[in-house]
Every structure is written in C-alpha cells, then in structure tokens.
C-alpha cells in the first residue's frame, strides 16, 4: 500500500520535523560537564590565556583570538600588539591582509577564569591608520577636548535570543507567533520569561570581569531582554558595552542560542534599541535642568545627523523600528518628561530634582557606542553651529 503524500501531509511532516529537531546550534548537545573537566586543569602560574577581542569590518560583529602569555598582564599596556588576516573580517584586501590589534582595555575572563584575560582592541592597518570600523579612535580624540565636562554615559542594550535559523527562542514552533504583547516585560514564569539562564549567566560574567553593569530584565517582546551598563564617565562606557556584547554572545554560544541586535526583526513586535543615558557635570549639579533643556534643543537641530550614525547601516534598519507607533518617529524629533514615545526622554525624577540626565531613545540595538558618544559630545559639548 502506497502512502499518498499530499501537500497537506508534506507540510505536516515539515512542521513535525521542525518540532522535533529545533534549529538550535549543535553546541547545546555538547556536555558542559566535560568542558569543566578540562577548564579546571591546573595551569602553571606563569601561563595566561589572553583573548583579544575586536570589532570587525561590519561595524557590528565581533571577533576574537587567543594567545598565551608568560606573565599576568595588569593593564592593557602590558599586552603586545597582534596582527591577523583582515581579509577574512572585511578589514583588508587579500594581497595586503595584515591588520594590527592594539589593546585598549583589559578585563578578567569569566569564561576561562583564573589569571586569564579579555583584551579589547582597536584595529589599525600596517601604516598605522585606523580601519574604517575603528570609531573608537575618533571618539577618543573628541573626548580629549571635553575632559572638564565629565560626560557620563549609560547604555540600555536590548537584544533577542534566537535559534541559528533566526527563529526567536521560545516562540511556538507550530502556531507562528506567541500571545500578544503585555505579558513579557519584566515577566516571571516559564510560559513568558524565555532564556533567563542566558541573561543571568551573562549578568554574573559582567560582574566578575569588572564591567559597570547596573541591571537586567526581560523586555516587551517574547525572547527579548535588556541589560544596562553605566553610568560611566568617558570612553570606558563604550568599551564596557562592546565587551558586554562579546560576552553575551559567548555565553549564549554555550547554551546553543544565537543573539540578534537587529533593530526590528518582526513587524508586529517591538524592535530593539540601545537607549543612551547622557549627562555632563553641570547637568548633574544643582540647577542642572536648564542645561538638559538646552541640550534637547541642540539635539533637535542635529536630528538627521544623529539618525545617520545611530545605526551602522546609516539609519536604514533603524527606520524600521522608529515608526511612531509606541516609539519615536525616525524623521521627527520629539522630547518629553516620562514620555517613552519621545526621541529624547527626561524622567519625572530628574524634572523634580531639577538635575540629572536625559535618555536618547533613538540609537538602534546594533549602534556603535563610540559613534553614539562622539555624536552626543560633538553636538552638546563642542557647541557646533
């Protein structure tokens, strides 16, 4: 007897196959107990693993390579430069492929632990010029002109947990999308808070390695989370965010989960941003509210310029997120007190105290924090016309 494979039966077979063989990374099948056996092997005190981490030519993704050191570095200055093949990371041509890693920050490594380190790096070509995706170099030049302003930053980084085929973690396999919005923000429960182990493991890693992490919570889309860094003065704020993004993906890798910083994956669900808290010394002092109001007016005049650098794709993907429905609109600047739909939000507590900070809600989740910081400081502290 032959089974007639009608389109309906074929579709049902595909759905069943998907339900049984979830599209998670094969990493989730690997035993972490076996990994612990090797991670806990005794290593000579003079041997240290230093994992060099950098931003590749996309301006969004990160790369890493590990080398052995015969000493424990106490700062990034103790770490030598390294070179790598930039033709594989969109940072050089094959016939002139060398790119130089220049250490700029060092962190304790929560993955390999012990004396091992994470070394955040800038990238330069062999002529000593910063690569096109090295926006830290220019940000530092800007910040060096405004040290007396003590600019302070905090980032609210939203992200989605996914399978390797871009299906959100925890979303129904057979029925399309989860139940409507409203159940997931700061949620508790196995039916609505998906991937807490990943978020909490990441949180502990950041505390271990010295990042200024201030909190974490589930966001309003199923499988969407947010972690907050800062407030931190100067370039360390952006360094911390980049190493936090690296560690988030590294931790999720162990769980077989992928991480997406895409600003807007699904039309009917809230997108992901990187809301940026900003203040200067005068804003934080008594009577500083007037400086916050002045800053908002300056931001309005440079709205288009900021939108272009608040998304590595020149605002293309961020425009999908900033539609005016529950969020600000990409082509219109707005501000307000306690208004989460505004481009720039001032909390009611700040208004009542008449000092503090504001939140720029326009940067996309995949924004380069160095570019965000540079834009804010140039507009608000260097007084452009």
TrEMBL record:
Location(s), subcellular: Cytoplasm
SUPFAM superfamilies found in the cross-reference section: Glutamine synthetase, N-terminal domain (SSF54368), Glutamine synthetase/guanido kinase (SSF55931)
Keywords for this protein: ATP-binding, Cytoplasm, Ligase, Nucleotide-binding
Domain GS catalytic, chain residue ranges per copy: 135-385
InterPro entries attached to this UniProt entry: Gln_synt_N, Gln_synt_N_sf, Gln_synth/guanido_kin_cat_dom, Gln_synth_cat_dom, Glutamine_Synthetase
GO molecular function: ATP binding; glutamine synthetase activity
A GO CC annotation given for this chain: cytoplasm
The GS beta-grasp domain, residue ranges: 48-128
Chief location category: cytoplasm
Keyword Transmembrane helix set for record: no
GO terms for biological process, alphabetical: glutamine biosynthetic process
Any coiled-coil regions, as ranges: none
E.C. numbers: 6.3.1.2
Family: Belongs to the glutamine synthetase family.
Protein name according to UniProt: glutamine synthetase
